[in-house]
Write a structure and sequence with these properties.
Low-confidence stretches: none
Radius of gyration: 26 Å
Strand content: 15-25%
Number of domains: 3
Number of helices: 13
Bound molecules: guanosine-5'-diphosphate, manganese (II) ion
Mean pLDDT: 94
CATH superfamily of the largest domain: Succinyl-CoA synthetase domains
Length: 385
């Protein structure tokens, strides 16, 4: 789950990372109230989950209440790269001597946490990576060992941070790492991390992505959930309690078990198709879940065929079949289904499907995963059109 900047800053503050005093506002009047509270000059910042807000006109400095009113009026309702600004964050403006970059994220291939640190902050890190890759220091961290202040000091020194910044940057790295691990983040990024003319190091922006798998131990995340911006398909899937991730392809995928769902994506790719989604209906899914899954997939305009790949263990074939029949009664499917049904009670399931009188143009059954993938991809790629 991605947080807005103001939420990220609130999250940082829990770990004692210095951020500016400020407040969120949904209206111009609220923005002025927050500006008065924060103390002038203030920056009025569009809260959208996309970078480059400054360049797009979504970040403005205001020296007094009139200017705060004017900027908030312009920024609220603004469209930034397809994101509508519904909220602004107003904070006391900082003086900047230098802009740095710091982040922790997981390097899955190395199976370690990873620090990225650079003196070239304030611009997107992808740009720095392209134009000046040597300016980014990358250090892996053993998740068991973690980091120490000495380690962080060395990292800053190795990246030639000015002597006056090293201690302050290192201190923030230790706090940011704590936020990242104890706070269960997938990403904790500060860009820019600023050096003030007074010598203090301070987080001027926050990009935090939380690991949804850890949500059970963070009841405080509920408030972030309330403002989360999902794509419509994902929203619908969440309402139906499905493990769904939207993708860009044309073959809708329903499988039981995350491993089988991933293999299904692979097989679809292997035979020349592209998956429209990942959807795991889990073990023991009943007819209701199956119907809900088909509804979510059917919502996706790009789906040209639906590949239902079930290997029944605790999921029973007749339940899956009943779900499909029920879904076909409930929703007008826009794409045909190709099903591979195997495992527990598969025969009963196939019989239910066969006796339901569903035409071949709506549903076909294939005996193996590969054959079903070929059939689904052939339909999606327009065979017969
Ligand atoms: P982003 O461009 O969407 O990542 O937004 P940021 O929050 O990173 O802000 C972009 C830029 O605006 C920063 O790199 C700063 O140069 C500038 N900026 C933001 N806040 C302040 C502030 O308090 N004072 C000053 N002087 N500049 C700021
Ligand atoms: Mn930024």
């Amino acid at each position: 789950m991605d947080l807005f900047e103001y939420q990220g800053k609130q999250y940082f503050a829990r770990y004692d990372i210095p951020v500016s005093a400020g407040g969120a506002a949904d209206t111009v009047d609220e923005a002025v109230t927050q500006a008065d509270k924060a103390g002038y000059p203030v920056v009025v910042k569009a809260q959208v989950q996309v970078g480059g807000r400054g360049k797009a006109g979504g970040i403005k400095l205001a020296n007094n209440a009139d200017e705060a009113r004017e900027h908030a009026g312009n920024i609220l309702g603004m469209d930034i790269k397809g994101h509508l600004v519904k909220r602004v964050w107003v904070e006391n403006a900082s003086d900047i001597a230098e802009e740095y970059y710091a982040s922790f994220t997981l390097d899955r291939s190395a199976k370690k946490h990873m620090l990225m640190l650079s003196k070239e902050g304030g611009v997107e890190i992808e740009t720095v990576a392209e134009t000046n890759p040597d300016a980014i220091l990358i250090r892996h961290i053993d998740p068991v060992d973690g980091i120490t202040l000495e380690w962080a000091i060395q990292a800053a020194k190795d990246n030639d941070f000015p002597e006056g910044s090293v201690a302050g940057v290192a201190e923030i790295l230790v706090k940011l790492y704590r936020c990242y691990t104890e706070g269960d983040c997938d990403l904790a990024e500060i860009n820019p991390l600023i050096l003030k003319p007074t010598g203090e190091i301070h987080a001027l922006d926050a990009k935090v992505s939380l690991d949804n798998n850890a949500a059970f131990r963070h009841p405080e995340w509920d408030e972030y959930r309330a403002t989360e911006e999902l794509d419509e398909r994902e929203q619908l899937a969440r309402e139906k309690d499905l493990q769904y991730i939207g993708l860009d392809g044309s073959v809708g995928i329903i499988a039981n078990g995350a491993g089988l769902a991933m293999s299904t994506l692979d097989v679809v790719n292997q035979v020349g198709g592209t998956a429209a989604n990942f959807l795991d209906i889990g073990g023991g899914a009943n007819a209701d879940v199956m119907a809900a899954a088909l509804e979510v997939i059917n919502y996706d305009q790009n789906v040209k065929s639906i590949f239902v790949n079930i290997f029944g263990g605790i999921t029973r074939g007749e339940e899956v079949a009943k779900g499909i029949v029920e879904a076909l009664n409930r929703v007008q499917l826009k794409a045909p289904i190709v099903i591979r049904l195997d495992g527990t009670n598969a025969e009963e399931g196939r019989q239910i499907l066969a006796s339901a009188g569903i035409p071949e143009s709506v549903l076909q059954s294939k005996p193996t995963m590969l054959e079903a993938a070929r059939a689904a991809v052939a339909i999606a790629n327009g065979a017969g059109n």
